[in-house]
């Protein structure tokens, strides 16, 4: 059975981009793949400074995956930090990775350009190396991600190839990214990619009142009262599309042409659709979040499941590089 692997940072409750771009596709893959998914605390640490928030986020994300249908009997869900060997593999990869490759990373360049001195730590610079280690340490075949992770996947393949060439063998398996076209980049409230750093999030597991508030904040184009609304360029419609059938979309397009239809109506329709979709998940999520023992048990069992694979891969790379007695 082929293996699917992915990670998500522990930086708060998952947002709609996380859900559509990664969580849903990743969970769907558990039927046909051996699924290994983890909470990327080490990556979150490049910005997170509050240990209580880190733990809370990890549990929120675990509860969310379970509520959305991850089956812990089939899929392994675990903390990145339960497998400290990833940091060892990251070092081995660092030693065969040119600085120039990392200097071209979008996330590093953006952090540098933003001049956020605090955030421009070495962890931000070497982020792609640790991510490559995360993927390669499990002999992963596919990695379900949103479009924004594609460059990291390319770098991962490059590092694996370089490691194999340097040490002369097929030690590391080259993974394939898996991106769902229609949700590769889910737009946020302002039409840009939904992202924590833009503060344009919709959080579908939050209380309905807050969710409605978020939806009502979606930015729309100022349109003179006598002109029909343009659905094609509308951020509300872009999101509505992701939760409706083609008939419902046709109906909504027709509504946009009606003189008595405003953006408020479109937002209310989107809120109702999303709320109906997420309500059953939210109930499970709230119950799970209160059940720390179950969450910790799932995380521990997940870590135990993946450990044997890690042992094998680490033995291969240690022996390839001449570490230990051989
Ligand atoms: P993170 O936590 O930023 O995001 C988790 C996943 O959500 C996807 N995503 C989106 N997809 C579509 N539209 C959006 N607006 C949107 N926003 C986020 C991301 O593409 C991602 O798949 N570097 C990773 C964490 C990581 C990882 C790994 C992933 C660490 N190690 C190994 C895969 C394999 C990250 O920052 O994800």
UniProtKB/TrEMBL annotation:
EC number: 6.1.1.2
Enzyme class: ligase
Domain of life: Bacteria
Motif 'KMSKS' region: where in chain: 193-197
Compartment(s): Cytoplasm
Organism, scientific name: Gaopeijia maritima
Alphabetical list of Pfam families matching this protein: tRNA-synt_1b
Binding site for L-tryptophan: 134
Self-association state and partner proteins as the record states: Homodimer.
Residue numbers binding ATP: 9-11, 17-18, 146-148, 186, 193-197
Entry keyword set: Aminoacyl-tRNA synthetase, ATP-binding, Cytoplasm, Ligase, Nucleotide-binding, Protein biosynthesis
Family matches, as CDD domains: TrpRS_core
Motif ('HIGH' region): 10-18
Name of the protein this chain belongs to: Tryptophan--tRNA ligase
GO MF, any single term: tryptophan-tRNA ligase activity
């Amino acid at each position: 059975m082929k293996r699917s692997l992915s990670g998500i940072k522990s930086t708060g409750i998952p947002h709609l981009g996380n859900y559509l771009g990664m969580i849903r596709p990743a969970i769907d893959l558990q039927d046909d793949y051996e699924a290994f998914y983890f909470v990327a605390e080490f990556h979150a640490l490049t910005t997170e400074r509050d240990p209580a928030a880190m733990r809370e986020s990890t549990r929120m994300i675990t509860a969310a995956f379970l509520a959305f249908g991850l089956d812990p009997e089939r899929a392994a869900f675990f903390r990145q930090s339960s497998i400290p060997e990833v940091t060892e593999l990251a070092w081995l990869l660092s030693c065969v990775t040119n600085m120039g490759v990392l200097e071209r990373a979008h996330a590093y360049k953006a952090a540098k350009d933003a001049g956020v001195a605090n955030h421009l730590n070495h962890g931000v610079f070497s982020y792609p190396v640790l991510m490559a280690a995360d993927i390669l340490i499990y002999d992963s075949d596919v990695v379900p991600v949103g479009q924004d992770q594609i460059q990291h996947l390319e770098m991962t393949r490059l590092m694996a190839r370089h490691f194999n060439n340097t040490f002369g063998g097929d030690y590391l398996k080259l993974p394939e990214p898996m991106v769902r076209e229609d949700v590769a980049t889910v737009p946020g409230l302002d039409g840009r990619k939904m992202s924590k750093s833009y503060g344009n999030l919709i959080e579908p597991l939050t209380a309905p009142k807050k969710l409605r508030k978020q939806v009502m904040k979606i930015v729309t184009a100022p349109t003179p009262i006598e002109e029909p609304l343009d659905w094609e360029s509308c951020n509300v419609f872009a999101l509505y599309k992701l939760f409706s059938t083609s008939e419902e979309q046709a109906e909504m397009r027709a509504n946009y042409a009606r003189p008595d239809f405003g953006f408020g109506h479109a937002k209310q329709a989107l809120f109702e659709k999303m709320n109906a979709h997420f309500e059953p998940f939210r109930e499970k999520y709230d119950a799970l979040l209160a059940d720390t023992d179950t969450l910790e048990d799932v995380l521990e069992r997940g870590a135990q499941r993946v450990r044997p694979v890690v042992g094998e891969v680490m033995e291969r790379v240690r022996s390839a590089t001449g570490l230990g007695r051989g």
